[in-house]
UniProtKB/TrEMBL annotation, chain A:
This is Iron-sulfur cluster-binding protein. Pfam families: Fer4_8 (PF13183), LUD_dom (PF02589), LutB_C (PF11870). GO terms for biological process: lactate metabolic process. InterPro entries: 4Fe4S_Fe-S-bd, 4Fe4S_Fe_S_CS, FTHF_cligase-like_sf, LUD_dom, LutB/LldF, LutB_C, NagB/RpiA_transferase-like. PROSITE patterns: 4FE4S_FER_1, 4FE4S_FER_2. GO terms for molecular function: 4 iron, 4 sulfur cluster binding; metal ion binding. Keywords: 4Fe-4S, Iron, Iron-sulfur, Metal-binding. Residues 306-337 form the 4Fe-4S ferredoxin-type domain. It comes from Microvirga brassicacearum.
UniProtKB/TrEMBL annotation, chain B:
InterPro entries: FTHF_cligase-like_sf, LUD_dom, NagB/RpiA_transferase-like. Residues 125-221 form the LUD domain. This is Lactate utilization protein. Pfam families: LUD_dom (PF02589).
Amino acid sequence: MSVHSTSPDFKKNAARALGDAQLQKALGNVKQGFIDKREKATQKLPEFEALRDSARDIKNHTLQHLDLYLEAYEQKVRASGGHVHFARHAEEARDIILSICKEAGARTVTKGKSMIAEEIGINEHLETHGITPVETDLGEYIIQLRHEMPSHIIAPAVHLNATQVEQDFRRVHTHLDAKRDLSEPVQLLTEARGVLRERFLAADVGITGANFLVAETGTSVIVTNEGNGDLTQILPKTHIVLASIEKLVPTLEDVSQILRVLARSATGQEISVYTTFSTGPRHLGDSDGPENYHVVLLDNGRSAMLGTSFEEMLRCIRCGACMNHCPVYHAVGGHAYGWVYPGPMGAVLTPTLIGIDQAGHLPNASTFCGRCESVCPVKIPLPKLMRHWREREFERHLTPATVRSGLGLWGFFAKRPALYRLATGIAIRAMGFAGRRKGRFQWLPLAGGWTRNRDLPAPQGETFQARWRREHKRRAA
Amino acid sequence: MSARDDILGAIRHSLGVSGKETIRRQIVSDRLAHAPKGVIPKRGQVSGEALLALFKVQAEAALATVTEVASAAEVPQSIAHFLRDHNLPASLRMGDDRRLQAMPWNDTALDIAHGPSAGDDLNAVSHALGAVAETGSLVMVSGSENPSTLNFLPDNHIIVVSAKDVAGDYESVWAKVRLTFGKGGMPRTVNWITGPSRSGDIEQTMLLGAHGPRRLHVVVVKE
């Protein structure tokens, strides 16, 4: 673990997020935009469901043979003139990257978007050693100016509104005319393009992530819409690819299968604008491209997930569909989750990377509505995995005493169906009687957490089980 | 132990394998050798005019513009028209691609520069290895023939592609890459390009011209 986590404060973070008017306005864009776009894109491709199965199977196959595909990949990268570095944990990855940068005599480093870079906290490390990292993805650039973490894995600045971006640009771009018009989003984009173009051309090293690593050819693959990842890697003398070990896929055909579900699930595009396959440094006779090509392969706890129930999480291709469809994410945004990965995928992954004692609230922050699993392009059973975490949390006695005794009480009745029916029957009738006039409760003992914010509808005098039996009998008759 | 051996060892420990199992090694080497195709969308499985029409529709849906010309000799005039129609300067940078070099640029008033871009060019032209009709994507390979910088630094990027190189799906293009560079071999960079550069990072509103070209224009040579 490297980046400071506020995951233990999830409840406080969430409460603050709910009261933040700017954030709530910005989160409206997630609900409106992503869901419709994905739906349209998937409906236009009749093979989409078959491709989801195919993508899932490719990732499963690769994970089952990960040691061998890593060896094959490494050999191909070396054969193409590149270097491969293995890093057990964040600190090792930071040291490797720093020493490559020092060797290159780097003063500034441009960066393509990389969640692994966030995971290992590379920016801070480089800054400490006198090297300036420059984020080049527009969203990442904006949050770097604000010293924030991404609040979404593919839309890092989704928690901000244009007026906030304008204020940041005016604060930082002091070399530009103070009276310039920045009232339109396109003016903000144009300004960032101009400022970053100079940074691209001046950078000594470019660091990108990788959406995929291809074992067949020793190729790293990045996907962008802006073209920033490409300018990051073709202009400086040295290109560093920072990727975690589960990014491997066997062949170019396999990566093509997964690319067909990635953009559709993420932004609702049929494919991103730029899909780039990079293999080694510039070839003999090439007139541009980097002279040095390094790949840093990070484990950071992933090898230990293989062979456990959390292995399925290693299929994740970081499209963001799970958070785009999550009612909890819609309500509190990404920062409330307190570490690098938000939303349902973060609720499963974060406890494996920083510990369930730190991140125990995250798998609890789910209504288990199941939308995340239903849109996941590689069919990760996210609710099931969150439930596994809840069980572990319970087993390790990390759950608060009130919750434990409540669950114990519920368990006592649930294991005795006749008693359960009797008790719920009485309780429902009593509540129905008490609430018969208004049809709702503004206050109930032990239910303050609910009634503080909204009324609880009064029961209609009968339990679900009783009604089910009645309807069933009627139909059978 | 080195980090490499540690990580491979940890993976093997978790999977309950030694890494020496003949069957596992065979499965992996077979997959790498044969590269099975998986699910190919029917959409691209058309030919002739229908394939070109699909490419055009998909490229335009990604906000590229597409023009067809009857022969390579017509490309320079077509590009000159495009630049004039958009009030762009009559300058153009290109690499040393032989197909581009052979075109009659002297028939136009275009000021031609050669070699990679240093970031101050407004217009560039590149020749594609091929295109994929399924999504309207152009496939570019790096090299002095078509430097990668031309794909990203100029404001206006023009890509020439031969109609015979337009394929239905990505897999057909990989077959062509393997034919050109050998199985398992790759150029330094393969770029799939689908429309002009854009960003949705400010309030989820899509805006064109983020870091790469603001315009992408495709010239399909039909001969």
